[in-house]
Structure formats: C-alpha cells, structure tokens
Amino acid sequence: MTAAHKTVRKNKIGITHSEKIFYFAVNLVLALFFGMILLPLINIVASSFSTADAVGKGKVLLWPVQPTLEGYKAVFTYKGIWRAYGNTIFYTVVGTTMDMAMTLMCAYPLARRNLPLKKPVVMLFMFTMLFSGGMIPSYILMKNLGLLNTVWCLLLPGLISVYNLIVCRTFMQNIPTDIEEAAKIDGCSDIRYFFSMVLPLSTTVMAVLSLYYAVGHWNEYFNPWLYLTNPNLYPLQMILRTILIQNSFDPESVTSEEDILGNKALQDLLKYSLIIVSSAPILMAYPWVKRFFMKGVMLGALKG
C-alpha cells in the first residue's frame, strides 16, 4: 500500500491501528498509576471510619468494617483541636497573602528587561536556594529579633520562595510587550500598569502559587516545633502530634498481649483519622484552583 493510500485510510478511520494500540497502552499505564495512588487513599478513608479492632486485625480494605466515628471522636474531643484549627487557618490565609504580595512585588521588576543590575539581583536570590545559615543561627536570629512565641516566627521566615519567584517572573516575562507599550501611550504609569494589566493577566500563576504557599503553611511543622512553646499558638500539626503521643502506650505498663494489641489497634485508628483531619480541608480547596492548573498546561500551546 502506498503512502497516499495510507493517508487516505487514516483520514477516513481517524486513527491507525498502531495508534490505537499505543493509546490503549498509554491509558492502561495511566490507569495502573492512578490505581496505585487511589487505592491507598481509599483504604485510609475506610480505616478511619472503622473500629479499632477491625483496623488492628487488618480486615479493612476498601470499605469501612463496622462503621463508626470512634477515631474522629477521640480526635475532636481533645480540648485544643479547634484552637489549633483556627491558628492554622490564620497562618495559612495571612501567610499566603503575605507570600504572594512579596513574590509579585519582586517578580514584576525582575521581569522588566530594562531593570538596572538585574543579573546580580537574580544571582543574589539564587544564592539563597543553595546556601543558608542553618538551624542554630536561624534560631538565634529569631531570638534576638524577639520573634520567639509570636505569630511572626511562622510568617516571616521563608516569606519568599525563590522557586516560586522564578516561576512568577518567567510568567510575567511572557506577557506581550505590546500591551505595555499601548498602556504607556495612553498615559498609564508603572504602578497602574502592574495593578490594571499585569495582575489580571497573571491570575493563573497567582492561583497556582497561592496553592503551593497555602499547602506549605498548612503542613508546616518544623518551624512551630522549633520556635513555639506556647500551646495557644500551636498549629494543627503540632496538636495532632500531641494527640498521637498522648494516646501511645508504654509496653512495660501493659501486662497482657490483648492489651498490647488493643492499644496498637487504637493507635493505628488514630493515625488514619489524623491523616483525614489534617488533609481534608486542603484537599477540598484543590478543586477551586483545578481549572487554573488546566489553563496553565495550555499556556503557550497556541500562538497568534
């Protein structure tokens, strides 16, 4: 069969037989990877709604066994859990807002082609990605600044992620210069151009980077553990750790094998419940920015 006949046949059918095989193989591999990710998540959710005995004996697979809210009751009856939720929401909202404000303020001038000393400034930011003072100097700095046991010790360190800054700067560099030239002809200043043109055109990257910052603040554990000793300022992750430790047991104080198995099963149930409690809010926020992720994949796909 000649090449012309093959082309005609492909146009009539839509795709060739070899392409069908390729697409089937790709979809099969993607389905396997999706199953590898989804099945453990389903098992965690099912285990969190099952009894401690069913979890301890490994009876739970993809559906709750003897459904109960025992694990969630043990978590939410802890007196500091709601305050920790409020603290984490505060750190996430305020921290993400501050992070995005500083990132946009730094990314915009670095995206300008006529910025003096642009390369040295970029190299200065890049230097911080490779080298830092370390944990002890950072702690001493927080102490000398009087930031220990304050909300600022969780908001100010890491105020700008250099990686996110580079992503934002690259996005702004791709904004056509014709827009800026037209705005200047109409008498638009740099500040007005930033707020009226650059920010509305950057909603995609702003949504994606906001999610990155929010997830980082929501899951933050090390800095609170290092800088905070006041329980009233503890974020959610610290309280969940406390709950898990308080419900652990000392093997020397347990006399029978049944008590050991019962305590171990209760610990496993608490682990599953804590995973859901700490992950559910941030997972529910993802669908709101999903469309921006999809749009970001298509950026640059079409050229005028």
Summarize the model shown.
The chain has 15 helices and no strands.
DSSP helical segment count: 15
Instruction: Specify the helix fraction band.
Output: over 70%
Intertermini distance: 38 Å
Number of strands: 0
CATH topology of the largest domain: MetI-like fold
Which structural class should the secondary elements be placed in? mainly alpha
CATH homologous superfamily designation of the largest domain:
MetI-like
Segments where pLDDT lies below 50 for 5+ residues? 3-12, 296-304
What is the secondary structure topology, with strand pairs?
Elements: H1 3-13, H2 17-48, H3 52-56, H4 70-76, H5 81-111, H6 118-130, H7 135-144, H8 152-155, H9 162-173, H10 177-185, H11 190-201, H12 203-218, H13 222-227, H14 236-246, H15 257-298
Give an account of the 3D structure.
With 304 residues, the chain is an all-alpha fold. It folds into 2 domains: 3-70, no CATH class; 79-246, Orthogonal Bundle (MetI-like fold). Helix content is 73%, strand content 0%. The protein has 15 helices and no strands. The longest helix is centred in the last third of the chain and has 42 residues, at 257-298. It is globular, with a radius of gyration of 26 Å. The model is unreliable at 3-12 and 296-304 (pLDDT under 50).
